[in-house]
Each structure stands twice: as structure tokens, then as C-alpha cells.
Write a structure and sequence with these properties.
By secondary structure, the protein is an alpha+beta fold. It has 7 helices and 19 strands.
Length: about 375
């Protein structure tokens, strides 16, 4: 299990506020900061972006390719282009093979000339938005904040919601690492919308590449707290189960034998009778929805997880469970400039604590201290 070190001593502070205006006229002009949306509330909107033009690619299929369907070959040829964009181009008749319109079932052969017009992905280029966020660490190279539940990490296709990136572009005056790309400057890892807790972004390209390498090489230590359904019989364990897209529900992930390696360490910190437990989960890999998928696979889905659990509605009257009860508690990594280890942590938010105390009051609480 992960080494539980003391977090770096950094005084949390709020960003997004301004000194009080001196006159009523100035107060009227003052821009009001956007606030992270509570779960279930109407999301705040980011500034509108201009649509980008379609991209056109012309090439011939290399001789080393085997005959295959158009969707498979084109996705392999256009490295870095999502399958959804390729599929959309095929569906809209924007792919030509030897001058003829093709669809996903068209068989392509070596030497065929293809012309692909890729529709704009619609990914927004994030712009600064003043909003309130808690900074837990900042220097010239990195910035870490306490992400509230309900806030996106970065802009996403098809959505005009504000995100952590929007807020930090304003706070840093645009000084987030451009190496992350226009929609995701500085983003080296992400938290799901409903997950709260520590997230770090890079302010320089050097820091960006150093942090990305740490996450890729699994030297960054991530610790999450999760309130789960039913108390596990064992007090700790390792889930080693590969993960990939669900075969039929493409917006979900699933444990699959042919999936990518995924490993999560876990241990029990508290039990609430046999009904629920507080787990500390430490993912050793970084698959999408990894902790949520793995704990559901363990038959202990996270409370409030309507995607991988069974919680369409609360079981009991007064059950305070507004979201997926997952919190990024601690992140330990090497500073990209100094090489020194830093540990950043934030305690769970009020909604997490409320459910934890509700479970303890209803079912009792038994604590299991970490082994020394």
C-alpha cells in the first residue's frame, strides 16, 4: 500500500475574488465570478468559441496493409484522430476511395487512394473565466487546486461548461503549459466531473513533460477515499483486472480480458456495520473510471455511482448521497524542477463527510488503522 506521508505545508487560498469596490457605480460594473456548480444544478457556461474548419487528408494505403474495412484502416492511418471523428466522416459521406464515396463497410486494399474530410471535432479552446477555486499549492512551475465535485477538469467536446482550466487560465494570466494542447493546457491528469479533491496542472512545458512522465511511469502516488456499498470481508487487497470500453455501451468502461492493464490497491479504513465501508484506493495505473470500475468488479460499487452501481435513487429517506462518493485525498510526486518529493492533500468536502457520519450514526463505526 502507499506510503502515507505528511502533506506539504501550503496555506490553501481562494482565487477568483477581488477587493471590495469603493463606489456603488464600481460595484455595478464589477464582474461576478462563476462558481463551480453543485451536483444537479445548471452548469455555468464558458465563452463561446468559433468553429474550426474541416480537415482534409489525401493519401494511399501502404502496401504493407492487409485488406480491411474502411473504418479500421482510416483510423490506423490517421494517428491521433479519434475513431468517433473517423466514424462521423464515414457516416456523412465525407470519405472517398478511388473517387467513390465510401462507408464503414467498404473494403479497402493496398494502393487505394483515399480522401478523408474530417469534420471539426468541436473541441473548445479554453478562455479565462474568473471563478472561485481553492489553491493548495502554487509556484512558477505547477499549481494544485482542490477541485469541487460537479466541475469539469477541462473543456470537453459538445459542452460549453466552465472547468478547472478556465479558472486557472484566469488566475495564472494564461500561464498554463501549452504542451497540453488548446483544450487542455497544463493538464497532466484528470478527475471525473463528480470526483472531488487534489488535481495538479503544469505551468511550463518542462513541468508538463516531467509530470506526464511520472504518471506514465507510475511514480506519482495517488490516494483516493471512497464510500462503498457493503463492507468487504477482507481488509485489503489488490485488484488486477484489465479495463477497456464496454462492448455495447461505449460511454462506459468495463473489465475485459482483452483490455489494458489496470491495477488498484485498496484497504478498509472504516466499516459501518455490514452495510457500507470507507476504502482507501491507490490506482497503480491510470485507466478511465478505473477505481469506479474496479470497486464495482469487487462487488462493492461506490455509493452514488449511477453508472457502475445500483443507486438510481437513495435507499433510505434522508440519505445524503448527491454524487459519486469518490475523493482524491492525496497526491505525492517529485517536483518537476527541484526533484524533491511533495505531498498534496485535502480533506473530503461537506457532502462526503455528511454521508460518512450518517452511515456511522445509523450502523455504527469500526475503524481500522493503517499498518505501520
Amino acid at each position: 500500500m502507499a506510503d502515507r506521508r505528511k502533506p506539504a505545508k501550503a496555506r490553501p487560498r481562494r482565487i477568483g475574488s477581488r477587493p471590495q469596490a469603493r463606489t456603488a457605480k464600481a460595484l455595478k460594473r464589477r464582474e461576478k465570478p462563476a462558481r463551480p456548480r453543485p451536483t444537479g444544478a445548471k452548469p455555468a457556461k464558458a465563452p463561446a468559441e468559433e468553429a474550426r474548419p474541416d480537415e482534409i487528408f489525401k493519401t494511399r494505403i501502404p502496401n504493407e496493409f492487409e485488406p480491411a474495412r474502411a473504418d479500421k484502416i482510416i483510423a490506423a492511418l490517421l494517428d491521433g484522430v479519434s475513431r468517433s471523428r473517423v466514424q462521423k466522416a464515414l457516416d456523412l459521406g465525407m470519405v472517398k476511395v478511388n473517387g467513390q464515396t465510401a462507408d464503414c463497410r467498404t473494403l479497402l486494399n493496398p494502393g487505394d487512394a483515399i480522401e478523408v474530410t474530417l469534420p471539426s471535432p468541436g473541441e473548445p479552446t479554453a478562455r479565462p473565466v474568473r471563478m472561485a477555486l481553492e489553491v493548495i499549492y502554487e509556484d512558477a512551475h505547477i499549481i494544485a487546486v482542490n477541485k469541487p465535485a460537479g466541475l469539469l477538469t477541462h473543456p470537453v467536446q459538445g459542452s460549453d461548461e466552465v472547468s478547472v482550466v478556465h479558472a486557472l487560465l484566469h488566475h495564472t494570466k494564461g500561464r498554463l503549459a501549452p504542451a497540453g494542447g488548446a483544450p487542455r493546457p497544463g493538464v497532466v491528469h484528470r478527475l471525473d466531473r463528480e470526483t472531488s479533491g487534489v488535481i495538479v496542472l503544469a505551468k511550463t512545458d518542462k513541468a508538463y513533460h516531467a509530470l506526464v512522465a511520472q504518471f506514465a511511469e507510475r511514480t506519482a502516488n495517488k490516494e483516493y477515499l471512497a464510500l462503498v456499498d457493503k463492507a468487504p470481508r477482507l481488509l485489503s487487497g489488490v485488484i488486477n483486472a484489465p479495463i477497456d470500453r464496454h462492448r455495447t455501451v461505449r460511454v462506459r468502461m468495463a473489465v475485459r480480458e482483452d483490455g489494458r492493464e489496470a491495477v488498484t490497491d485498496w484497504r478498509v479504513e472504516e466499516k459501518y456495520g455490514e452495510q457500507a465501508a470507507l476504502l482507501r484506493a491507490c490506482p497503480q495505473t491510470g485507466r478511465t473510471h478505473q477505481i469506479r470500475v474496479h470497486l464495482a468488479h469487487l462487488a462493492h460499487p461506490i455509493l452514488g455511482d449511477r453508472t457502475y452501481g445500483k443507486f438510481d435513487v437513495p435507499f433510505y429517506s434522508g440519505w445524503p448521497m448527491p454524487r459519486v462518493m469518490l475523493h482524491a485525498h492525496r497526491l505525492t510526486l517529485l517536483h518537476p524542477q527541484t526533484g524533491k518529493e511533495i505531498s498534496l492533500s485535502v480533506e473530503p468536502p461537506a457532502d462526503f463527510i455528511a454521508l460518512r457520519e450518517w452511515l456511522a450514526a445509523r450502523y455504527g463505526r469500526r475503524t481500522y488503522p493503517a499498518a505501520s
